[in-house]
Amino acid sequence: DVGDDGDGDNTGADEPDDVIDSLENVDGTGGQPPPEVSEAVDPPPLDTEVPPVVQAKFLRSSGPLESRVRIASPDIANGYSSCDDLKDDIVEALKFYANSIIMSEQSNDWYEKCDPKNSNYWWGGEPEYALAAESTSALDSAAAPPALESISAPQAEVSGKVDSPESTESSYGTNNQVDGVDEADIVKSDGKHVYAAYGDLLFVWNATDSSAGMSVTKIPQDSYENCTRDNPIKPWKPFPVPEPLPEEVVFENVRRRKTHMEHHRHLHPPRHSRQALSIAPGWHYNPCTKPRILSLLLHGKRLTTIVSENRYRGLDYTYEAKIIDDYSTVYARVYDVSDPQDAKPLTLLSETVIKGSYNSARSINSKGFVFSTSYINTWPFSEGIYRSHPDYCGMNSSQYVTVAAEKALNKTDDFAHQLLDELQLQLEGTCEDLFQIAALQSGDNGDDNIGGQVLENMVLISSFDMAADEVETHTSGAFSSGYLSSVYASQDFAAAMNVGSNYNALTNSWDQSTFILGFDLSGELPMPFAFAEVPGSPLNQYSSDYYDGNFRIVTTQTQWSWDSVDSESRTTNILYVLGVPGDQEGAEMPVIGKTTHLGKPNESVFAVRLIQDKAYVVTFERTDPFYIIDLSNATKPEMIGELQIPGFSSYLHPINISGVPLMLGIGEDVSEDGRRIGVKVSMFDVSNSSNPVENATFVDKGAYSAAGSDFYGFRYLPSSQKLIIPKSKYTTSSEGNFDGFVVYDIDLGDISEAYEIEHASSRAIWSGCWYDASMPARSLVFDGKITTVLSHSVIGTDLTTGEKEWNVSLAEGVNKTQCHPYFM
Fold it and tell me: How many CA atoms lie less than 13 Å away from 392 in the CB half-sphere?
């Protein structure tokens, strides 16, 4: 199978099987039994017993409208049996939101002084409502909220992870988290061709023959057919443009004087030619912004591009009052890549709209999954409720409450109908694929901690078949009053980590809490499946995984209420093990095990790697504690190994050299007072889990590497024992800047720099003009030749010698209407 090089496994890219095997052979000693699930989490350093609490089931609403909004619990995964039930919940949420606004606005008596007969106090417009003795008739006739029903949800059969085959010297797969689940990225390869997205351009070139040319596909601007610039700027000429600059340039057929800087450059030309010429002075607003390719998914001879296109909103833009109204439109465009041709665009096979703002995407065989979020625009409902509205001019507080409640109640039904209509268009006319509406908060406190915004946004999963002749999406999701932190996906199970809040009775404060919404991916479309809540919030997607029937997640909870608790630390870092329900087991993912606090006082989690029955965690404040946790007994996870070193790692990657299991760490070195020194590459010997050792380290002072946060930029080659990561250095002048890659030789007890790959000269970075796009750092290896992609160029380098063999500027020959800096 072309491209099956073993990169897409649950331990990252390119490691041999013996990495996994050697990491398994450590016996844990077990720990203390975990507390009951209903108990509040209280690990050290907060050395205080917290009694069990009763979970509130509904939000407390003190406003004039009777409303009932549930608080998140496992029952919300039961979904809806009908869209009428969903509409009822939307109405309840709207009434709760109206109460929240009315109760906060009633204390503002400034508007009581407003005189409707005095134009100096008038806001304009005719009032819709007048005071009347019977103004609460709609309130009196309002129906009581419907009773909640418990509906059984479909259950998923979640599969475990699979070991990957041994890697070879050719390494071009994406650095995936889970075996069999390919993550979308900006660069993809099948071993024969490389596919790279550069702004609105899609490049394809032969992976092993740089002389074969490139296929270039420009993404069309579908929504801009009638878009015209307020001040059109015509392209001047393709770049590169040699120095010196011309005396004058034409700008809209008007000649202008040279600026002081242009005059200086004419008298003192730089030693190197500039990459291009600025053709437009100053900043220019362009409502017709180009579409952007956000990521790529590759399956066989089909390449799917995920494209975002901001809708045109110029002077002639006509506003459409939509409730689910994202600023941009996201498309999935599927192209035929069976035979890419030089200088010819790819053939578009099909396209479809993906709802929401893009978060991430995965593919499992031919099925693609796009995770997105949609903002719910409640302003059309709420704008007439605020006390600044002319209708309330001169009213006292009680009068305002009466009229505002009447006004809100009369709006709820129409607004709920419109939202439901838009949802049905978005969810193919059904409502069974939605989690039940609930506030993402918990604890023995029914007070509103979400500002009334139960319907603040939506978390969506859209699935489609990349191999189909016509691509159609199936969408499911949930309303969320929190924010989407990260997404995890295995072959049958996906989890959306949404951060909300939990009431801490001990400190009388609200702390962060993560609400895990689990989706079953085994059917035709994703379905609500499971629910869990854990204190704190995860760092990134590597903070969670599924293994052997359990879902594991590491979170950091920050405690800001210093006056309310006697503690040495404001942070608590915990690894939780959750049971994933099977058939007939309901929807709850109960906590079946957890660790004590990981780290020193005030340290937060900086890196996590969960590999089968072991967890590797890095925490940091001043030093870098490296912990190994034994998960062989899911109910008794235990920290069995610890190492204290300076600095920190933000990404961990397992490797094996001569049978020794190791963990590579990419992070930063810091001084004793916490000041940053530079990039730090560490290698930890984890053969003895109870006694991890820093086997080797290398510090590149003053440098920065994106691989510490953008894990797709990391590549390790086990055969040659080389590490390739991006490197950059920035100065405040045209000298000393660097943007490129560094290649390290990795051996037991030694990390050394082999060579660097420069992608742009220091002066070009400082003063060049570039196309308004930029590529993240990616590296691929084909038959001992490195291909590096970064910012605006692609470079081929010999892996052994480090000699540059070819160089392609992605921006060359592209007409521009503006001059853009190197970094976008």
Answer: 27
Nearest CA to 178 among 154, 197, 195, 158? Answer: 158
Strand partners for 256:
none
3-state helix/strand/coil string of 534-546: EECECCCHHHEEE
- pTM for the model stands at 0.81
Q: Which of 317, 295, 324, 164 is nearest to 228 (CA)?
A: 317
> Over 70: is that where the pLDDT of 17 sits?
no
- At residue 110, φ and ψ (nearest 5 deg) are -60, -35
Cβ contact 342:213 at 8 Å: yes
H or E segment to which residue 85 belongs: helix 83-105
* % of the chain residues with pLDDT over 70: 75
- Sequence-ordered list of residues with C-beta below 8 angstroms from that of 209, at least 6 positions apart, any chain: none
Residues counted in the chain: 824
Q: Which residues pair with 111 in a beta bridge?
A: none
Cα distances (angstroms) measured from residue 107 to each of 400, 434, 679: 10, 37, 54
Q: In sequence order, what DSSP letters do the residues of 112-139 get, joined into one string?
A: GG--TT-GGG--SS--S----TTTTHHH
How many whole angstroms separate alpha carbon 331 and alpha carbon 326? 13
Distance CA 611, CA 461 (A): 26
The phi, psi pair for 210, rounded to 5°, reads: -70, -15
604/187 Cα distance (integer angstroms): 32
Which among 67, 73, 55, 56 is positioned nearest to 101, based on CA atoms? 67
Handedness of CA 667, 670, 672, 673 (dihedral sign): negative
Q: Where are the beta strands (DSSP E) in 128-284?
A: 182-183, 187-189, 193-198, 201-206, 214-218, 250-251, 254-255
**pLDDT tens digit string along 623-678?**
678 999 999 999 999 999 999 988 899 999 999 999 999 999 999 999 887 789 99
**What radius of gyration, in Å, describes the C-alpha atoms of the chain?**
29
